[in-house]
From TrEMBL:
GO terms for biological process: antibiotic catabolic process; response to antibiotic. GO terms for molecular function: beta-lactamase activity; penicillin binding. The keyword DNA-binding does not apply. SUPFAM superfamilies: beta-lactamase/transpeptidase-like. Belongs to the class-D beta-lactamase family. The modification N6-carboxylysine is found at residue 89. This is Beta-lactamase. Its EC number is 3.5.2.6. The active site is at residue 86. It catalyses: a beta-lactam + H2O = a substituted beta-amino acid. Keywords: Antibiotic resistance, Hydrolase, Membrane, Signal, Transmembrane, Transmembrane helix. The keyword Kinase does not apply.
Length: 107
């Protein structure tokens, strides 16, 4: 039987990758709920309010093929321009670990 030695930082990377996949799946579910609610002429605020409870942000669902906004939650916040902050930290860290640019000792 072939024994495979797993590097000590591989498990945290796999956990982070799984977390990213789960977050993306949650995003798709939320987008689907909002899209289906908007097409049914339901007020988006009543549908999205429980999903965004305790957070400060906004959500915009845009149809690129028709150049139309499908749904928008917290319109004032969506109109405010902000820097993306930590959006790419996780992805860049995973790429650096994968390319062996950094390891557990360097973080």
């Amino acid at each position: 039987m072939l024994a495979v030695k797993i590097k000590p930082f591989t498990k945290p990377i796999l956990i982070m990758k799984n977390t990213i996949h789960i977050n993306f799946a949650i995003f798709l579910i939320i987008a689907n709920i909002i899209y289906s609610s908007a097409s049914a002429s339901t007020d988006i605020s009543t549908v999205a309010s429980p999903l965004f409870e305790g957070t400060e942000g906004c959500f915009l669902l845009y149809d690129a093929s028709t150049n139309a906004e499908i749904a928008q939650f917290n319109k004032a916040k969506c109109a405010t321009q902000m820097a993306p902050d930590s959006t790419f930290k996780i992805a860049l860290s995973l790429m650096a670990f994968d390319a062996e640019i950094i390891d557990q000792k360097t973080i």
